[in-house]
Amino acid sequence: MIEFSDVTKVYDDGTTAVDDLSITAPTGKITVLVGPSGCGKTTTLRMVNRLIEPTRGKILLGGEDSGEIDRIQMRRRIGYVIQNAGLFPHQTVVDNICAVPYLNGVKRGEARRRAQELLTLVGLDETYAKRYPWQLSGGQQQRVGVARALAADPPYMLMDEPFSAVDPIVRKQLQQEFLRIQGDLAKTILMVTHDIDEALRLGDQIVVFSEGGVVAQSGSPAEILARPANRFVADFLGASRGYHALGFETIRGLDPQQTPTFTLGEPSAPAGEPWIVAIDHDHRPLGWVQPGRVSDRTRADDVQTATAVSLDSGSRRELLDAALASPGGSAILAHDDGTYAGTVHLDEVIRSAVDALGEERAAR
Ligand SMILES: Nc1ncnc2c1ncn2[C@@H]1O[C@H](COP(=O)(O)OP(=O)(O)OP(=O)(O)O)[C@@H](O)[C@H]1O
């Protein structure tokens, strides 16, 4: 756990960057600090590892005052990832990853073996170990940055805009892999971003900062989306707030319609519907086909591919996206084992979302 207790930072020129901050980043969770430029996010983060000294207040790491922890100990306990990865340009990838373990006195062979494991963990094979940072793409550099921060197996991670230097597609990939890694490692993470989508995607807890280093609101993404504390937070969440909120609503209990199916290899399909669901021999949905156009020669390549939404763990937002992306306006659903569960039409998706909204308002 990282605890800020009445922490203030006033720079030498009189700028109050952080004002009387008291927040807690819970153990094993991702806490995201989000807010417009200049509102004190980076200052907050850097006070944790004492790159910046607080003017007043205390920061506790697992109950221990960070001001009293020896610097070398601190490096061991806190991984730090920054924008553009911040790799040492004249060192190979493997030496970048081993930098802190070497400082900690870990033997060369052991540090390098661990570095290889970490490279695999972040999705890079061993051929990258001998390269220099300039021989990597931006996304690959970010991966190495994450591997380097994990090298000393620190319980805490500070991440300052870790995925912002890459294009949106790579960024989404990195975010997904990061969540996968965090699912296994459960580090206590404090992350800074100015991107609300990233905050909502990654954060277990979000702290929204406003001008002058003041917390406008903190809570889970779902809480903040459902009940922004004030106009500033609502504006910051933007016009797509309702759509984002759907991402946190489950579809469990939904009763899908049994749209007919066509199993690949069969000579024909049941008529009556303009689009039906193509499934494989294991009863897994592949996408959509038109019944009049199929034959025993129809292959997976002839199917309009669709991603099925999990009936057990899917969200309303996934359902809406799937329905909008399909040729007939319906989302395909699958059971946990991947087998076909039915379909839901866009009209039903919207109607149930509106009903849920009504129920939530009535409960307030
Ligand atoms: N060394 C410094 N001396 C004086 N003022 C500073 C210093 N570093 C930062 N500031 C000011 O403190 C405030 C907070 O800066 P900080 O970098 O923490 O904000 P931020 O929310 O991380 O911004 P960004 O999203 O743009 O990185 C800003 O007004 C900034 O100009």
Automatic annotation (TrEMBL):
Q: Keywords of this protein's UniProt record, alphabetized?
A: ATP-binding, Nucleotide-binding, Transport
Task: Tell me which EC number(s) this protein carries.
Answer: 7.6.2.9
Class of the enzyme per the UniProt entry, highest EC level = translocase
Name the InterPro entries for this protein. AAA+_ATPase (IPR003593), ABC_transporter-like_ATP-bd (IPR003439), ABC_transporter-like_CS (IPR017871), P-loop_NTPase (IPR027417)
Q: Which SUPFAM superfamilies does the protein's record reference?
A: P-loop containing nucleoside triphosphate hydrolases
Going by the entry's taxonomy, the superkingdom of the source organism is recorded as Bacteria
Listed Gene3D superfamilies: P-loop containing nucleotide triphosphate hydrolases
Annotated ranges, domain ABC transporter: 2-237
What Pfam families would the database entry show?
ABC_tran
The terms under GO molecular function for this entry are: ABC-type quaternary ammonium compound transporting activity; ATP binding; ATP hydrolysis activity
Family statement: Belongs to the ABC transporter superfamily.
Protein name as catalogued: ABC-type quaternary amine transporter
Origin organism of this chain?
Leucobacter tardus
Q: What is the lineage of its organism?
A: Bacteria, Bacillati, Actinomycetota, Actinomycetes, Micrococcales
